[in-house]
Amino acid sequence: MRGVIRKTLLLGFVLCAPLAHADGGTIVFSGAIVEPTCSVGVQRIAAAESTGNSRQYHCSEQANATPGQLAQSYALSVADVADTALASDPLIVYFAHYLSASPKLVTQTYQ
Fold first, then answer.
1. Rounded to whole angstroms, how far apart are CA atoms 49 and 83?
2. In sequence order, what E strands does the chain have?
3. Are the C-beta atoms of residues 97 and 81 closer than 8 Å to each other?
4. Are 107 and 79 in contact (CB under 8 A)?
5. Among 35, 72, 84, 106, which is least packed by CB within 10 angstroms?
6. How far is CA 43 from CA 21, 36, 50, 54, 76, in A?
């Protein structure tokens, strides 16, 4: 019985390995985000941007929340795109010139 389980697990790993692979220094994933994310308001973005550090928040919106379910917590950080590798991306440069504004990179990191 143990042999069958081991062989099944090994087969599963072999078949799942091609789902994530490196291509030219970039890791490419396929799939979908199945966990709902939290919406971020302009006030939270402004607060995170003014401090310069990431700030901790809890989601108040829960899709299909059950009683007693813990709220998701996340860190919110805001950075100027000019300080990142995206500064040379043609689409970001076009967007910045089109809006005559400096784009911001808003990142939510879930705990």
1. 14
2. 20-23, 26-29, 55-58, 73-80, 104-110
3. no
4. yes
5. 35
6. 38, 21, 11, 14, 12
Tokens standing for 65? Answer: 């929340």
Using one digit for the tens of pLDDT, what is the confidence trace for 11-37? 666 666 556 555 567 777 788 766 667
What's the CA gap between 73 and 38, in Å, rounded?
Answer: 9
Q: Which two tokens stand for residue 102?
A: 């400096």
Contacts of 78 (CB under 8 A, 6+ apart): 45, 48, 49, 104, 105, 106, 107
Length of the chain counted residue by residue? 111
80-104 confidence digits (pLDDT tens): 888 888 888 999 889 888 988 888 8
Amino acid at 47: A
